[in-house]
Amino acid sequence: DVKVTQSSRYLVKRTGEKVFLECVQDMDHENMFWYRQDPGLGLRLIYFSYDVKMKEKGDIPEGYSVSREKKERFSLILESASTNQTSMYLCASSFEAREQYFGPGTRLTVT
Amino acid sequence: ELKVEQNPLFLSMQEGKNYTIYCNYSTTSDRLYWYRQDPGKSLESLFVLLSNGAVKQEGRLMASLDTKARLSTLHITAAVHDLSATYFCAVLNYGGSQGNLIFGKGTKLSVKP
Fold it and tell me: What CA–CA distance (Å, rounded) separates B48 from B90?
């Protein structure tokens, strides 16, 4: 079974803090993705990576950065958290252009 | 730019009834995925449709793909309460890098006794 894990299920941070969300997959997938999910807006792609140290911007990269130093790990960084970044964050991985497997999600609240 | 539209966005149906969710997309693609999401949970893969005319069935759900019409359907037969969830379709975006999916906004299904 493919397993995608995320470091926290729930996170509360203050405005201006630097926030790290970690994602790890155990299936040797090349592709990894970060989405945010908001009511009425569906899933929106923030960043994705198709190889170690490679990254590409998705639809809403502003205010975020990513890091992929190892194949199994993809980190999402909020440099200076703001209240409009309160959301559910979902990580996913895939092999080539195949179905994506999702982690359990991190519900982030920025106060 | 690839756009994916699902309808309806909300669906309330009675147990035992049949209904269809539609997923339209705007540019050529031959890979389409259906996912299910339960409240507070992550997305779970339901079907992978890889070619024109593909049909997959599992239990009371059947998905099909018509790449010429750029349309996929998710048909629910004799709905039961356990099917209450949000269903997403996602289309492979060949215009982007490999593995990039574009998601519809989701259809929230509520099955009532």
Answer: 10
Length of chain B: 113
* Omega prior to B8 cis, within 30 of 0: yes
Give the pLDDT confidence of B20-76 residue by residue, as tens digits: 999 999 988 878 999 999 988 889 999 999 888 899 999 999 999 999 999 999 999
Quick one: which of A19, A16, A10 has its CA closest to A88? A10
Of B106, B2, B45, nearest in space to A94 by CA? B45
Give the CB-side neighbour count of residue B54, counting CA atoms within 13 A. Answer: 19
Cα separation, A42 vs B106, in Å, equals 6
Q: Is the dihedral of CA A58, B42, A29, B29 positive or negative?
A: negative
A100 vs B96, B101, B106: nearest CB: B101
Cα B8 to Cα B20: distance, rounded to the nearest angstrom: 9
Helix (H, G, I), strand (E, B) or coil at B82: helix
* Cβ-defined contact of B48 to A40 (cutoff 8 Å): no
Q: In B, which residues are within 8 Å of A31 by CB distance?
A: 98-99
